Amino acid sequence: MSNIRHPMSRRAGLAFAVLGEVRLWRDGVEVPLGPPRGRALLAALLLREGTPMGRDDILGGLWGDSFHVDGANLVQVYVSKLRRLLEPDRPPRAAASLLPRVGNAYRLAVEADQWDLGCFQRARTAARELRSAGELIESERVLGEALALWPGPALTGVEGPLLDVERVRLAELRLAATEEHLELALETGAEDDVIPSLLTLTREHPYRERLWALLMVALYRGSRQADALAAYRRAARALKDDLGLSPGPELRRIEEAILAGAPSTTLTARPRTGPVRPQHVPDRPKLTLVHGTGIGAAPSRRAAVPPYRARRLGDRR
């Protein structure tokens, strides 16, 4: 585990993390969660975002077909342990307030600022609003801070059919936000700084057309027309050879603009209004390297600031 203090540990009261290892703090002090199955239960309840989770959903989502004892008792044992961690001062027979039973289900509701995913989603929304208002530099800063909440792959160290699905969903959420952040950096004139990250990302996600579009624009704005066209050819080859597809309209539009010698300042990677072409990714994508720490990489001991942003911050001092 990194020696860097987790942002959620600075919050008063209870705070939770799922973007990386599943963790719990009380007034800044980490609470040991015990075996992986207990951490998995906490993660599953958090990801329901206040919606009650039934016993059958818990059993199927965390154990699948692997449990061989009475299911109701098994769930009750883990719920009781989690309740003691959440409310250590609750009298033995007092009703649980943080993890109450609702029929045959259990409900854990936390405020958005009590867990890292809630903070991330709120910050991403704020960054989009800033971008719509034309505040690009501030939008980039806010989204960069949101991405810094991910010390590593979400739900590290917990297993279960439900969490396997959630892990893929959250990895996609992180990668989509990374694309937005790279685009913001590109829009604020950091094309030379984002190219290394985009080269890495397109190697790791060769069917991700949005990344190829950003790379082509960054290269073209950096006066590297031949490299931008070569990037298009690599994207087209990967799509055709592996998926039997042709590049989508956004990539074709950018290629045509480059071939026509369009002014680099007018060429953007933002798609035109219209249907969005779905992204094509493998069933179990290899989600690695985003900026300094990476999707799928071990947590860095340095702050999770994208390298292109770090350089630009240094330039402003």
Automatic annotation (TrEMBL):
InterPro entries: AfsR-DnrI-RedD_regulator (IPR051677), BTAD (IPR005158), OmpR/PhoB-type_DNA-bd (IPR001867), Sig_transdc_resp-reg_C-effctor (IPR016032), TPR-like_helical_dom_sf (IPR011990), WH-like_DNA-bd_sf (IPR036388). Keywords: DNA-binding, Transcription, Transcription regulation, Two-component regulatory system. It comes from the Bacteria. The keyword Transit peptide does not apply. Residues 6-110 form the OmpR/PhoB-type domain. Residues 6-110 bind DNA. Residues 266-286, 298-317 are annotated as: Disordered. The keyword DNA-binding applies. Pfam families: BTAD, Trans_reg_C. GO terms for biological process: phosphorelay signal transduction system; regulation of DNA-templated transcription. SMART domains: BTAD, Trans_reg_C. GO terms for molecular function: DNA binding. Residues 298-308 have a biased composition (Low complexity). Belongs to the AfsR/DnrI/RedD regulatory family. This is AfsR/SARP family transcriptional regulator. It comes from Streptomyces muensis.
